[in-house]
Amino acid sequence: MNIDTKAVSEAEDESGSNSGLSVRVTVLPMDQVIELSAGDTILDVARRERIRIASSCGGHGTCITCAIQVTDGEIPEPHDADRQVFSERRIEDGWRRACLTRPVADCTILVPPRSTAAAVRTQVDGQAGEVEFAPGIEVLHFELEAPTLEDFRADDLRIQEAFPGKADRFDARLLAGFAEDVRRWKWRGWLASRDGEIVAAGPIDAPVLGLAVDLGTTNMSGFLIDMQSGEVLATEGLENPQTMFGGDLITYASHIRRNPEMADELRKLAVEGANRLAGDLCDAIDAAPEQIVEVTVAGNTMMHHLLLGLPVKQLALSPFISALSAAADFKARDLGLMIAPGAYVHMLANIAGFVGGDHVATLLASEIDVEKPVIIMDIGTNTEISLVQAGNITSVSCPSGPAFEGGNISAGMRAAVGAIELVRIKGDELSLKVIGDAAPVGLCGSGVLDVVAQLYLAGVCDNRGRLREEHSRVRLINEKRAFVLADEEASGSGAAIVFTQDDIRNLQLAKAAIRAATDILLDECGYTEADLGKVVIAGAFGNYIDVASALAIGMLPDLPFNRFAQVGNAAGDGARFTLQSKAQRQLAVDIAARAQYFELASAPTFMKVFGKRMNFTETTNIKNKD
Ligand code: FES
């Protein structure tokens, strides 16, 4: 799908508004009515009303994740750009993109499963083991005599004398309620001491909790920790609410460039997500978020800056400079987190503009103490790659785009029920594995990777990615070749699910970026692929991919299977470690300080290597697992 973005914005400007009238749109299956004013698109108002419609490109009309169907009422004229992506029949059936559609009369729309942004599969757990529990928070249990006419010491003095050197200061907000609380608790309870500051207090039988958060661009995951034993009490993953404005860093940055107020809107959504995570996790163990006394957050640099309300404009512009790189602590209340009033949030350090605390956490949780060089990569819309050898760490980052999360792919969707996650092609036979064993409605990232690998391995496309017309499933759609994964009868949405020539191209761009970045990193450090002892693939996408498929299309170094390790949510593990152990927190600081960032844009050979890696080439280590 080649969408002319310039044409989209010009057409948008010309199309103007929906003539100043207010229009009521009934949104199914949510059964909610939204009111559109002049100039509003359906997506604009859905976002305001918190109705989830997927929007991988952030509403710029360059993906197709916001597809909706007008099922009743006057069908709005299609936008020119919609004619590029929908067949004539689908246009007649009322298919439009929510970000380009401005209804002129009341109507009803259906948001198909592929376009709802709910119930996305998230990867919470990593595979790292345990660390020795020795956190930066000390829990002080107290059972004190109440004041009398003979013992009229002030409350703070009474506590300080009970715990010399451990209760030198009280958080001011905590102190405001402490006098009343401690009397209600009959002078029995606990205090959370952090470097001599009392940050939280509770009655004797209440749990003392900590929260570790992996704040990702598309998903966030949390670990609720018992701060007296170190035990993980509950875990949860949820979709980052910011995804209603896109799902990748570049899209967020472009929103903010157009409208600086968006930074605050995105900050509020990140805070909303973190509060929801805290609330859900506490609900799971029948506790209250106010019992959370410390939080650690590992996020990419953009998420880190948005959560802290720091400027992000310079992050997206060369030379991509972060406003804050050091690990830092903030009062949770200053960030809007509704936990214990005096609690702190520890933000892990960033390495560079596009290598953030999440990668530091990944490095912390990964096994890097081996003799041979190790590559550690976290694949996403932006891919961070580090080469670790003998205590040296060199990191690069490359924009791999949203294809691995279903974005910029005509049938792409997030990893939710109905997403094809595995594809096998043998001759004319095709088999699919669909999340939730449902009828397929689209393809998630691992499915996208699989289908391209299978098309290549089965000879349906050549080594340059060109589809061959001889295969029975290759059809001409809008004058371009496309491979049919499910026809209209087999599809769960009523529309055929196809993988187009342009989709293959988008995946080639993403995989070439990753492989070229790996090549340049190895070269910069004086190694070849054969020198690598291990390639660690972290992150949600990396957890679900088939390494054989990634090898088949040349996305990963050409090494035997046993040198690859898929470690799940290592960033979450790293965030957890920094909550459970003060020593691990310091180790994360050391890792960030030790890591040398190498800017790929400064490598004169990058574009040449990138061009070479666009093609699919023979790999010596590929063997189809099936
Ligand atoms: S095309 Fe509408 S959100 Fe991307």
Structural class: alpha/beta
- CATH topological fold name of the domain at 357-395 and 513-613: Nucleotidyltransferase, domain 5
Helix content: 25-40%
| Cα end-to-end separation | 31 Å
Question: Treating each run of at least 4 consecutive H or I residues as one helix, how many helices?
Answer: 18
What's the CATH class label of the domain at 357-395 and 513-613? Alpha Beta
Mean pLDDT: 88
CATH superfamily of the domain at 357-395 and 513-613: ATPase, nucleotide binding domain
Strand residues, percent = 15-25%
Shape, principal axes of CA atoms: globular
Radius of gyration: 26 Å
Strand adjacency order, main sheet: 12-11-10-13-15-14
Give the second-level CATH assignment, the architecture of the domain at 357-395 and 513-613. Answer: 2-Layer Sandwich
Let me know the largest β-sheet: 6 strands, mixed
Poorly predicted segments: 1-18
Associated small molecules = FE2/S2 (inorganic) cluster
Task: List how many beta strands DSSP finds.
Answer: 27
